[in-house]
Protein backbone atom coordinates (compact mmCIF):
# COMPACT_ATOMS: atom_id res chain seq x y z
CA UNK A 1 0.00 0.00 0.00
CA UNK A 2 1.18 3.48 -0.81
CA UNK A 3 1.24 6.02 1.95
CA UNK A 4 1.01 9.77 1.57
CA UNK A 5 2.88 12.34 3.59
CA UNK A 6 0.64 14.79 5.39
CA UNK A 7 1.25 18.52 5.11
CA UNK A 8 1.43 20.68 8.21
CA UNK A 9 -1.91 22.20 7.33
CA UNK A 10 -3.52 18.80 7.17
CA UNK A 11 -2.07 17.83 10.54
CA UNK A 12 -3.33 21.06 12.01
CA UNK A 13 -6.81 20.48 10.62
CA UNK A 14 -7.04 16.91 11.90
CA UNK A 15 -5.85 17.97 15.34
CA UNK A 16 -8.54 20.60 15.50
CA UNK A 17 -11.20 17.95 14.96
CA UNK A 18 -10.58 16.90 18.55
CA UNK A 19 -12.53 20.05 19.47
CA UNK A 20 -16.27 20.36 19.14
CA UNK A 21 -16.37 23.80 17.54
CA UNK A 22 -14.03 22.74 14.74
CA UNK A 23 -15.95 19.54 14.13
CA UNK A 24 -19.01 21.71 13.63
CA UNK A 25 -17.18 24.21 11.44
CA UNK A 26 -15.52 21.58 9.23
CA UNK A 27 -18.40 19.11 9.30
CA UNK A 28 -15.93 16.33 9.96
CA UNK A 29 -15.04 14.04 12.84
CA UNK A 30 -12.44 11.43 13.81
CA UNK A 31 -13.04 7.71 14.31
CA UNK A 32 -10.24 5.89 16.06
CA UNK A 33 -9.23 2.27 16.56
CA UNK A 34 -9.12 -0.75 14.29
CA UNK A 35 -12.53 -2.18 15.05
CA UNK A 36 -14.29 1.15 14.81
CA UNK A 37 -12.57 2.23 11.58
CA UNK A 38 -13.06 -1.18 9.99
CA UNK A 39 -16.77 -1.21 10.78
CA UNK A 40 -17.27 2.33 9.51
CA UNK A 41 -15.57 1.48 6.21
CA UNK A 42 -17.54 -1.73 5.76
CA UNK A 43 -20.82 -0.14 6.66
CA UNK A 44 -20.52 2.61 4.04
CA UNK A 45 -22.94 4.92 5.82
CA UNK A 46 -20.32 7.51 6.59
CA UNK A 47 -17.93 8.98 4.01
CA UNK A 48 -14.31 8.48 5.04
CA UNK A 49 -12.08 11.09 3.43
CA UNK A 50 -8.69 10.06 4.81
CA UNK A 51 -7.14 7.25 6.81
CA UNK A 52 -4.28 8.09 9.16
CA UNK A 53 -1.89 5.37 10.27
CA UNK A 54 1.00 5.49 12.67
CA UNK A 55 4.39 4.71 11.14
CA UNK A 56 5.36 1.04 11.56
CA UNK A 57 1.90 0.15 12.78
CA UNK A 58 0.76 -3.16 11.34
CA UNK A 59 -2.87 -2.40 11.86
CA UNK A 60 -3.35 -1.21 8.28
CA UNK A 61 -3.00 -4.75 6.96
CA UNK A 62 -6.21 -5.69 8.72
CA UNK A 63 -8.25 -3.10 6.82
CA UNK A 64 -9.60 -3.37 3.31
CA UNK A 65 -9.29 0.13 1.97
CA UNK A 66 -10.19 1.13 -1.55
CA UNK A 67 -10.13 4.62 -2.96
CA UNK A 68 -9.35 6.28 0.35
CA UNK A 69 -6.03 8.09 0.67
CA UNK A 70 -3.89 6.72 3.50
CA UNK A 71 -1.49 9.05 5.31
CA UNK A 72 1.41 7.86 7.38
CA UNK A 73 2.20 9.86 10.51
CA UNK A 74 5.22 9.70 12.79
CA UNK A 75 4.54 8.69 16.37
CA UNK A 76 4.33 12.16 17.90
CA UNK A 77 2.19 13.51 15.05
CA UNK A 78 -0.12 10.52 15.34
CA UNK A 79 -0.44 10.97 19.09
CA UNK A 80 -1.31 14.63 18.60
CA UNK A 81 -4.34 13.66 16.51
CA UNK A 82 -5.29 10.73 18.76
CA UNK A 83 -7.76 11.04 21.61
CA UNK A 84 -6.65 7.87 23.41
CA UNK A 85 -3.92 7.17 25.92
CA UNK A 86 -2.74 4.07 24.09
CA UNK A 87 -3.43 4.70 20.39
CA UNK A 88 -4.10 1.67 18.21
CA UNK A 89 -2.43 3.21 15.20
CA UNK A 90 -5.37 4.03 12.95
CA UNK A 91 -7.77 6.95 12.66
CA UNK A 92 -10.39 7.68 10.01
CA UNK A 93 -11.28 11.26 9.11
CA UNK A 94 -15.00 11.23 8.27
CA UNK A 95 -17.65 13.58 6.97
CA UNK A 96 -20.35 14.23 9.54
CA UNK A 97 -23.65 12.80 8.28
CA UNK A 98 -26.37 15.41 7.86
CA UNK A 99 -29.12 15.70 10.44
CA UNK A 100 -32.52 14.29 9.56
CA UNK A 101 -35.38 16.72 9.34
CA UNK A 102 -38.30 16.30 11.68
CA UNK A 103 -40.70 15.41 8.90
CA UNK A 104 -38.63 12.47 7.73
CA UNK A 105 -38.07 11.21 11.24
CA UNK A 106 -41.72 11.43 12.23
CA UNK A 107 -43.21 9.87 9.11
CA UNK A 108 -41.56 6.53 9.68
CA UNK A 109 -42.80 3.74 11.82
CA UNK A 110 -40.25 2.53 14.28
CA UNK A 111 -38.46 3.09 17.50
CA UNK A 112 -36.90 6.44 18.35
CA UNK A 113 -34.45 6.98 21.18
CA UNK A 114 -34.32 10.43 22.80
CA UNK A 115 -31.31 11.41 24.91
CA UNK A 116 -31.92 14.02 27.60
CA UNK A 117 -28.63 15.50 28.85
CA UNK A 118 -26.48 12.38 28.62
CA UNK A 119 -23.07 13.63 29.69
CA UNK A 120 -20.69 10.70 29.61
CA UNK A 121 -19.25 10.10 26.13
CA UNK A 122 -18.74 6.38 26.76
CA UNK A 123 -22.33 6.04 27.90
CA UNK A 124 -23.72 7.87 24.85
CA UNK A 125 -21.56 5.83 22.48
CA UNK A 126 -22.67 2.57 24.06
CA UNK A 127 -26.30 3.66 23.77
CA UNK A 128 -25.90 4.50 20.08
CA UNK A 129 -24.20 1.13 19.54
CA UNK A 130 -27.06 -0.69 21.27
CA UNK A 131 -29.75 1.38 19.48
CA UNK A 132 -28.14 0.37 16.23
CA UNK A 133 -28.08 -3.32 17.21
CA UNK A 134 -31.82 -3.12 17.89
CA UNK A 135 -32.45 -1.16 14.68
CA UNK A 136 -33.81 2.00 16.21
CA UNK A 137 -35.16 4.23 13.43
CA UNK A 138 -34.01 7.55 14.82
CA UNK A 139 -32.09 9.33 17.55
CA UNK A 140 -33.02 12.65 19.14
CA UNK A 141 -30.02 14.30 20.73
CA UNK A 142 -31.48 16.59 23.41
CA UNK A 143 -29.81 19.69 24.83
CA UNK A 144 -27.07 19.06 27.35
CA UNK A 145 -26.12 15.80 25.67
CA UNK A 146 -22.48 15.38 24.69
CA UNK A 147 -21.65 15.78 20.97
CA UNK A 148 -22.35 12.44 19.24
CA UNK A 149 -19.25 13.01 17.10
CA UNK A 150 -16.92 13.49 20.07
CA UNK A 151 -14.02 11.02 19.53
CA UNK A 152 -14.83 9.01 22.65
CA UNK A 153 -18.50 8.73 21.73
CA UNK A 154 -17.53 7.56 18.25
CA UNK A 155 -15.12 4.99 19.67
CA UNK A 156 -17.76 3.65 22.03
CA UNK A 157 -20.27 3.20 19.20
CA UNK A 158 -17.88 0.52 17.86
CA UNK A 159 -18.59 1.62 14.29
CA UNK A 160 -22.31 2.29 14.59
CA UNK A 161 -21.79 6.03 14.13
CA UNK A 162 -23.92 7.15 11.21
CA UNK A 163 -26.01 3.97 11.08
CA UNK A 164 -29.13 5.68 12.42
CA UNK A 165 -30.85 8.93 11.38
CA UNK A 166 -30.44 11.58 14.05
CA UNK A 167 -31.23 15.15 14.89
CA UNK A 168 -30.23 17.56 17.62
CA UNK A 169 -33.48 18.56 19.21
CA UNK A 170 -35.23 20.60 21.81
CA UNK A 171 -36.95 17.60 23.37
CA UNK A 172 -39.60 19.72 25.05
CA UNK A 173 -41.12 20.87 21.76
CA UNK A 174 -40.18 17.99 19.48
CA UNK A 175 -41.62 15.28 21.72
CA UNK A 176 -44.91 17.22 21.74
CA UNK A 177 -44.84 17.36 17.94
CA UNK A 178 -44.14 13.66 17.69
CA UNK A 179 -46.99 12.87 20.09
CA UNK A 180 -49.30 14.90 17.89
CA UNK A 181 -48.34 12.78 14.92
CA UNK A 182 -49.16 9.59 16.79
CA UNK A 183 -45.95 8.55 18.46
CA UNK A 184 -46.07 7.04 21.96
CA UNK A 185 -43.58 8.11 24.55
CA UNK A 186 -42.09 6.01 27.33
CA UNK A 187 -39.85 7.80 29.77
CA UNK A 188 -37.31 5.56 31.48
CA UNK A 189 -37.60 6.54 35.09
CA UNK A 190 -37.37 4.62 38.33
CA UNK A 191 -40.00 6.59 40.25
CA UNK A 192 -42.93 5.08 42.12
CA UNK A 193 -45.54 5.96 39.53
CA UNK A 194 -43.66 4.22 36.74
CA UNK A 195 -45.13 1.04 35.30
CA UNK A 196 -42.99 -2.06 34.84
CA UNK A 197 -41.29 -2.44 31.48
CA UNK A 198 -42.79 -5.91 31.26
CA UNK A 199 -46.29 -4.45 31.08
CA UNK A 200 -45.41 -1.59 28.71
CA UNK A 201 -47.02 -2.34 25.36
CA UNK A 202 -45.20 -1.46 22.21
CA UNK A 203 -47.16 0.25 19.46
CA UNK A 204 -44.78 0.29 16.49
CA UNK A 205 -44.30 4.04 16.86
CA UNK A 206 -42.48 4.26 20.13
CA UNK A 207 -40.10 6.75 21.63
CA UNK A 208 -37.86 5.82 24.56
CA UNK A 209 -36.53 8.78 26.53
CA UNK A 210 -33.41 8.26 28.65
CA UNK A 211 -32.17 10.92 31.04
CA UNK A 212 -29.04 12.24 32.66
CA UNK A 213 -26.87 9.69 34.47
CA UNK A 214 -27.20 11.38 37.86
CA UNK A 215 -30.48 13.27 37.75
CA UNK A 216 -32.64 11.25 35.40
CA UNK A 217 -35.06 12.79 32.94
CA UNK A 218 -35.98 16.47 33.25
CA UNK A 219 -39.27 16.57 35.27
CA UNK A 220 -40.80 18.85 32.60
CA UNK A 221 -40.54 16.05 30.06
CA UNK A 222 -42.15 13.60 32.49
CA UNK A 223 -45.36 15.62 32.97
CA UNK A 224 -48.44 13.76 31.79
CA UNK A 225 -46.38 11.06 30.19
CA UNK A 226 -45.93 7.37 30.83
CA UNK A 227 -42.93 6.51 32.97
CA UNK A 228 -41.51 3.02 32.62
CA UNK A 229 -39.13 1.29 35.00
CA UNK A 230 -36.99 -1.82 34.81
CA UNK A 231 -38.25 -4.25 37.47
CA UNK A 232 -35.60 -5.05 40.06
CA UNK A 233 -34.49 -4.77 43.66
CA UNK A 234 -33.49 -1.27 44.60
CA UNK A 235 -32.41 -2.29 48.11
CA UNK A 236 -29.10 -3.62 46.88
CA UNK A 237 -28.40 -0.79 44.50
CA UNK A 238 -30.31 2.42 43.95
CA UNK A 239 -30.63 2.29 40.19
CA UNK A 240 -29.28 0.90 36.95
CA UNK A 241 -26.69 2.63 34.79
CA UNK A 242 -28.45 4.72 32.09
CA UNK A 243 -26.98 2.72 29.17
CA UNK A 244 -28.03 -0.54 30.82
CA UNK A 245 -31.59 0.64 31.45
CA UNK A 246 -31.97 1.85 27.86
CA UNK A 247 -30.60 -1.40 26.45
CA UNK A 248 -33.09 -3.51 28.35
CA UNK A 249 -35.92 -1.27 27.17
CA UNK A 250 -34.67 -1.50 23.57
CA UNK A 251 -34.64 -5.29 23.84
CA UNK A 252 -38.22 -5.24 25.09
CA UNK A 253 -39.46 -2.71 22.53
CA UNK A 254 -37.61 -3.94 19.44
CA UNK A 255 -39.44 -6.21 17.09
CA UNK A 256 -36.77 -8.92 17.42
CA UNK B 1 -19.15 15.58 63.93
CA UNK B 2 -15.74 14.90 65.39
CA UNK B 3 -12.90 14.13 63.02
CA UNK B 4 -9.81 12.14 63.86
CA UNK B 5 -6.30 12.88 62.65
CA UNK B 6 -4.76 10.00 60.74
CA UNK B 7 -1.27 8.77 61.64
CA UNK B 8 1.36 8.34 58.95
CA UNK B 9 1.05 4.59 59.28
CA UNK B 10 -2.66 4.73 58.63
CA UNK B 11 -2.17 6.90 55.56
CA UNK B 12 0.45 4.48 54.28
CA UNK B 13 -1.86 1.53 54.81
CA UNK B 14 -4.81 3.15 53.05
CA UNK B 15 -2.64 4.17 50.11
CA UNK B 16 -1.46 0.59 49.73
CA UNK B 17 -5.04 -0.58 49.32
CA UNK B 18 -4.92 0.93 45.84
CA UNK B 19 -2.80 -2.12 44.96
CA UNK B 20 -4.22 -5.60 44.52
CA UNK B 21 -1.60 -7.49 46.48
CA UNK B 22 -2.12 -5.32 49.56
CA UNK B 23 -5.89 -5.58 49.32
CA UNK B 24 -5.42 -9.34 49.45
CA UNK B 25 -2.92 -9.18 52.29
CA UNK B 26 -4.98 -6.79 54.41
CA UNK B 27 -8.37 -8.16 53.42
CA UNK B 28 -9.59 -4.63 52.94
CA UNK B 29 -10.59 -2.40 50.06
CA UNK B 30 -11.55 1.21 49.31
CA UNK B 31 -14.95 2.48 48.23
CA UNK B 32 -14.96 6.02 46.88
CA UNK B 33 -17.57 8.65 46.12
CA UNK B 34 -20.67 9.86 47.95
CA UNK B 35 -23.24 7.63 46.30
CA UNK B 36 -21.13 4.50 46.59
CA UNK B 37 -20.14 5.08 50.23
CA UNK B 38 -23.67 6.04 51.19
CA UNK B 39 -25.12 2.90 49.63
CA UNK B 40 -22.51 0.65 51.23
CA UNK B 41 -23.23 2.10 54.67
CA UNK B 42 -26.98 1.80 54.27
CA UNK B 43 -26.81 -1.70 52.89
CA UNK B 44 -24.85 -3.06 55.87
CA UNK B 45 -23.48 -6.01 53.93
CA UNK B 46 -19.90 -4.82 54.09
CA UNK B 47 -18.16 -3.75 57.29
CA UNK B 48 -16.81 -0.21 57.00
CA UNK B 49 -13.90 0.32 59.39
CA UNK B 50 -13.04 3.95 58.65
CA UNK B 51 -14.41 6.87 56.68
CA UNK B 52 -11.93 9.30 55.15
CA UNK B 53 -13.04 12.81 54.23
CA UNK B 54 -11.17 15.59 52.56
CA UNK B 55 -10.72 18.71 54.67
CA UNK B 56 -13.44 21.32 53.99
CA UNK B 57 -15.44 18.88 51.94
CA UNK B 58 -19.13 19.24 52.63
CA UNK B 59 -19.93 15.76 51.45
CA UNK B 60 -19.86 14.32 54.96
CA UNK B 61 -23.11 16.11 55.87
CA UNK B 62 -24.92 13.95 53.33
CA UNK B 63 -23.95 10.71 55.06
CA UNK B 64 -25.54 9.21 58.15
CA UNK B 65 -22.62 7.66 59.94
CA UNK B 66 -22.87 5.93 63.31
CA UNK B 67 -20.09 4.19 65.16
CA UNK B 68 -17.59 4.52 62.34
CA UNK B 69 -14.51 6.65 62.98
CA UNK B 70 -14.17 9.53 60.51
CA UNK B 71 -10.72 10.80 59.60
CA UNK B 72 -10.06 14.17 58.07
CA UNK B 73 -7.28 14.33 55.47
CA UNK B 74 -5.64 17.35 53.89
CA UNK B 75 -6.04 17.70 50.12
CA UNK B 76 -2.76 16.11 49.08
CA UNK B 77 -3.12 13.23 51.54
CA UNK B 78 -6.67 12.63 50.37
CA UNK B 79 -5.61 12.64 46.75
CA UNK B 80 -2.89 10.11 47.49
CA UNK B 81 -5.51 7.63 48.73
CA UNK B 82 -7.99 8.46 45.97
CA UNK B 83 -8.18 6.53 42.73
CA UNK B 84 -10.08 9.22 40.80
CA UNK B 85 -8.98 12.27 38.88
CA UNK B 86 -11.59 14.49 40.48
CA UNK B 87 -12.12 13.10 44.00
CA UNK B 88 -15.53 13.66 45.57
CA UNK B 89 -14.10 13.99 49.05
CA UNK B 90 -15.15 10.74 50.70
CA UNK B 91 -13.69 7.23 50.84
CA UNK B 92 -14.76 4.25 52.95
CA UNK B 93 -12.20 1.69 54.09
CA UNK B 94 -14.01 -1.65 54.09
CA UNK B 95 -13.38 -5.25 55.10
CA UNK B 96 -13.42 -7.57 52.10
CA UNK B 97 -16.38 -9.96 52.42
CA UNK B 98 -15.35 -13.62 52.61
CA UNK B 99 -15.72 -15.81 49.53
CA UNK B 100 -18.61 -18.26 49.46
CA UNK B 101 -17.76 -21.93 49.41
CA UNK B 102 -18.87 -23.97 46.45
CA UNK B 103 -21.28 -26.02 48.48
CA UNK B 104 -23.22 -23.01 49.67
CA UNK B 105 -23.32 -21.47 46.23
CA UNK B 106 -24.49 -24.65 44.50
CA UNK B 107 -27.17 -25.62 46.99
CA UNK B 108 -29.28 -22.58 46.34
CA UNK B 109 -31.78 -22.10 43.64
CA UNK B 110 -31.20 -18.98 41.69
CA UNK B 111 -29.25 -17.23 39.02
CA UNK B 112 -25.46 -17.31 38.98
CA UNK B 113 -23.32 -15.03 36.84
CA UNK B 114 -19.89 -16.29 35.76
CA UNK B 115 -17.28 -13.83 34.49
CA UNK B 116 -14.68 -15.21 32.09
CA UNK B 117 -11.70 -12.86 31.80
CA UNK B 118 -13.56 -9.55 32.08
CA UNK B 119 -10.77 -7.00 31.93
CA UNK B 120 -12.33 -3.58 32.13
CA UNK B 121 -12.97 -2.50 35.73
CA UNK B 122 -15.88 -0.25 34.74
CA UNK B 123 -17.49 -3.10 32.84
CA UNK B 124 -17.14 -5.56 35.72
CA UNK B 125 -18.50 -3.03 38.22
CA UNK B 126 -21.50 -2.28 36.01
CA UNK B 127 -22.17 -6.02 35.65
CA UNK B 128 -22.06 -6.54 39.42
CA UNK B 129 -24.40 -3.55 39.85
CA UNK B 130 -26.85 -4.99 37.34
CA UNK B 131 -26.58 -8.53 38.76
CA UNK B 132 -27.47 -7.10 42.12
CA UNK B 133 -30.48 -5.21 40.68
CA UNK B 134 -31.77 -8.48 39.24
CA UNK B 135 -31.00 -10.36 42.47
CA UNK B 136 -28.48 -12.83 41.12
CA UNK B 137 -27.72 -15.41 43.82
CA UNK B 138 -24.01 -15.78 43.17
CA UNK B 139 -21.03 -14.52 41.18
CA UNK B 140 -18.18 -16.68 39.87
CA UNK B 141 -15.08 -14.58 39.20
CA UNK B 142 -13.14 -16.57 36.59
CA UNK B 143 -9.40 -16.35 35.99
CA UNK B 144 -8.23 -13.34 34.06
CA UNK B 145 -11.04 -11.22 35.46
CA UNK B 146 -10.07 -7.96 37.14
CA UNK B 147 -10.14 -7.93 40.97
CA UNK B 148 -13.76 -7.21 42.04
CA UNK B 149 -12.39 -5.04 44.88
CA UNK B 150 -10.32 -2.83 42.56
CA UNK B 151 -11.35 0.78 43.39
CA UNK B 152 -12.77 1.41 39.93
CA UNK B 153 -14.81 -1.80 39.98
CA UNK B 154 -16.17 -0.86 43.41
CA UNK B 155 -17.07 2.63 42.20
CA UNK B 156 -18.87 1.23 39.18
CA UNK B 157 -20.96 -1.12 41.32
CA UNK B 158 -22.56 2.04 42.78
CA UNK B 159 -22.66 0.45 46.22
CA UNK B 160 -23.64 -3.09 45.22
CA UNK B 161 -20.23 -4.43 46.26
CA UNK B 162 -20.80 -7.20 48.78
CA UNK B 163 -24.50 -7.55 48.04
CA UNK B 164 -24.08 -10.93 46.30
CA UNK B 165 -22.19 -14.08 47.36
CA UNK B 166 -19.11 -14.59 45.22
CA UNK B 167 -16.14 -16.83 44.72
CA UNK B 168 -13.01 -16.69 42.60
CA UNK B 169 -13.19 -19.79 40.48
CA UNK B 170 -11.59 -21.93 37.86
CA UNK B 171 -14.63 -21.83 35.58
CA UNK B 172 -13.55 -24.91 33.66
CA UNK B 173 -13.90 -27.23 36.67
CA UNK B 174 -16.50 -25.36 38.68
CA UNK B 175 -19.01 -25.08 35.86
CA UNK B 176 -18.74 -28.86 35.40
CA UNK B 177 -19.40 -29.36 39.10
CA UNK B 178 -22.40 -27.06 39.00
CA UNK B 179 -23.80 -28.88 35.97
CA UNK B 180 -23.51 -32.14 37.87
CA UNK B 181 -25.59 -30.71 40.67
CA UNK B 182 -28.33 -29.72 38.25
CA UNK B 183 -27.50 -26.19 37.18
CA UNK B 184 -28.12 -25.13 33.58
CA UNK B 185 -25.54 -23.10 31.75
CA UNK B 186 -26.14 -20.44 29.11
CA UNK B 187 -23.07 -18.99 27.46
CA UNK B 188 -23.58 -15.50 26.08
CA UNK B 189 -22.07 -15.72 22.63
CA UNK B 190 -22.96 -14.21 19.30
CA UNK B 191 -21.97 -17.17 17.13
CA UNK B 192 -24.16 -18.79 14.50
CA UNK B 193 -25.05 -21.83 16.55
CA UNK B 194 -26.35 -19.76 19.41
CA UNK B 195 -30.08 -19.75 20.07
CA UNK B 196 -31.98 -16.51 20.59
CA UNK B 197 -32.30 -15.29 24.15
CA UNK B 198 -36.04 -15.02 23.57
CA UNK B 199 -36.30 -18.79 23.18
CA UNK B 200 -33.94 -19.65 26.05
CA UNK B 201 -36.04 -21.17 28.85
CA UNK B 202 -35.13 -20.40 32.39
CA UNK B 203 -35.08 -23.28 34.87
CA UNK B 204 -34.67 -21.62 38.25
CA UNK B 205 -31.10 -22.89 38.50
CA UNK B 206 -29.40 -20.95 35.75
CA UNK B 207 -25.86 -19.81 35.14
CA UNK B 208 -25.07 -17.02 32.68
CA UNK B 209 -21.48 -16.96 31.44
CA UNK B 210 -20.13 -13.72 30.01
CA UNK B 211 -16.76 -13.54 28.29
CA UNK B 212 -13.91 -11.19 27.60
CA UNK B 213 -14.80 -7.86 25.96
CA UNK B 214 -12.73 -8.50 22.85
CA UNK B 215 -12.51 -12.26 22.49
CA UNK B 216 -15.74 -13.52 24.03
CA UNK B 217 -15.95 -16.69 26.08
CA UNK B 218 -13.05 -19.17 26.07
CA UNK B 219 -13.94 -21.83 23.44
CA UNK B 220 -13.20 -24.58 25.99
CA UNK B 221 -16.08 -23.37 28.11
CA UNK B 222 -18.38 -23.33 25.10
CA UNK B 223 -17.90 -27.00 24.19
CA UNK B 224 -21.12 -29.01 24.45
CA UNK B 225 -22.93 -26.16 26.07
CA UNK B 226 -25.84 -23.99 25.07
CA UNK B 227 -24.85 -20.67 23.53
CA UNK B 228 -27.37 -17.85 23.72
CA UNK B 229 -27.37 -14.65 21.70
CA UNK B 230 -29.21 -11.37 21.94
CA UNK B 231 -31.29 -11.00 18.77
CA UNK B 232 -30.28 -7.97 16.74
CA UNK B 233 -28.81 -6.62 13.53
CA UNK B 234 -25.09 -7.26 13.29
CA UNK B 235 -24.78 -5.37 10.02
CA UNK B 236 -24.79 -2.03 11.75
CA UNK B 237 -22.52 -3.04 14.56
CA UNK B 238 -20.64 -6.27 15.11
CA UNK B 239 -21.69 -6.99 18.66
CA UNK B 240 -23.03 -5.59 21.89
CA UNK B 241 -20.87 -4.40 24.76
CA UNK B 242 -20.38 -7.26 27.27
CA UNK B 243 -22.10 -5.46 30.14
CA UNK B 244 -25.07 -4.64 27.89
CA UNK B 245 -25.43 -8.22 26.68
CA UNK B 246 -25.31 -9.60 30.22
CA UNK B 247 -27.87 -7.07 31.46
CA UNK B 248 -30.38 -8.02 28.80
CA UNK B 249 -29.90 -11.71 29.63
CA UNK B 250 -30.34 -10.98 33.35
CA UNK B 251 -33.58 -9.15 32.58
CA UNK B 252 -34.82 -12.15 30.61
CA UNK B 253 -33.69 -14.75 33.18
CA UNK B 254 -34.61 -12.96 36.39
CA UNK B 255 -37.90 -13.81 38.02
CA UNK B 256 -39.07 -10.19 37.85
Automatic annotation (TrEMBL), chains A, B:
Listed InterPro entries: Alpha/beta_knot_MTases, MRM3-like_sub_bind, Ribosomal_eL30-like_sf, rRNA_Methyltransferase, SpoU_MeTrfase, SpoU_subst-bd, tRNA_m1G_MTases_N
Keyword Methyltransferase: yes
GO cellular component, one term: cytoplasm
Keyword Hydrolase annotated: no
Domain of life: Bacteria
Keywords: Methyltransferase, Transferase
Residues of the RNA 2-O ribose methyltransferase substrate binding domain: 30-100
One GO molecular-function entry: RNA methyltransferase activity
Pfam annotation, one family: SpoU_methylase
GO terms under biological process: methylation; RNA processing
CDD domains: SpoU-like_rRNA-MTase
Similarity comment: family membership: Belongs to the class IV-like SAM-binding methyltransferase superfamily. RNA methyltransferase TrmH family.
Stated name of the protein: RNA 2-O ribose methyltransferase substrate binding domain-containing protein
Source organism of this protein record: Rhodohalobacter barkolensis
